[in-house]
Specification:
The structure is a single chain. The protein is an alpha+beta fold. It has a domain at 19-79. The chain is 41% helix and 12% strand. The chain contains 4 helices and 3 strands. The longest helix is centred in the N-terminal third of the chain and has 13 residues, at 3-15. The relative contact order is 0.15.
Length: 95
């Protein structure tokens, strides 16, 4: 699905009174650096009426990065979670 079709669907949904999370929250949240912010954006997508159309379109377009349809994309592929910046720890942290 082309991005223009998704935009048209979003305009129609807003016209019918739907609140789209990506329209009423800070758009930068869907392209955040911090893993906690990315998880929050994914959670906001759960109640979106266009979630499946957004996800399908992002897969078709192989979106390079960001949260689309409640899933995180990196280099055109859905990944489970965003790793924090920096090097991973050499030893696990004692709890």
């Amino acid at each position: 699905m082309p991005l223009t079709d998704l935009i048209d669907q979003a305009v129609d949904a807003v016209g019918l009174g739907a609140e789209l999370p990506c329209r009423v929250n800070d758009p930068e949240l869907w392209f955040a650096e911090r893993p906690e912010d990315v998880e929050f954006a994914k959670a906001l997508c759960a109640a979106c009426p266009l979630q499946q159309a957004c996800l399908d379109g992002a897969k078709d377009r192989r979106e390079p990065w960001g949260v689309w349809g409640g899933q995180l994309f990196q280099q055109g592929v859905v990944i489970p979670r965003k790793r924090p910046r920096g090097r991973p720890r050499k030893h696990p942290v004692a709890a």
